[in-house]
Amino acid sequence: MVLPPQLFEPIARGGFGDWIGHSYLGLKGMVHPYYVMIAFFIILFRSGKPSIPRGSMSMRPAIAPQGQEASYGALSYIPSREASFSLP
Questions:
Q1: How far apart (Å, rounded) are the C-alpha atoms in residues 35 and 11?
Q2: pLDDT at residue number 37
């Protein structure tokens, strides 16, 4: 998201940008490179989530300092799939 938008202009004008902007989002006119950047960011973010080992989440509260078990437990729950928020 911190890369210059000029790097994504060829992709935004190509097939992927056309699909993201016109087919998926229903935009009219040119597709801004930021839409492509956001799509790549989401794909990259979602592909890294399954690589978090499940055992590490149960181990974090076990190594928590005395009196901070709840904080460690809450923070270890953040990357889990069960903690994903969904709107009704």
A1: 10
A2: 92
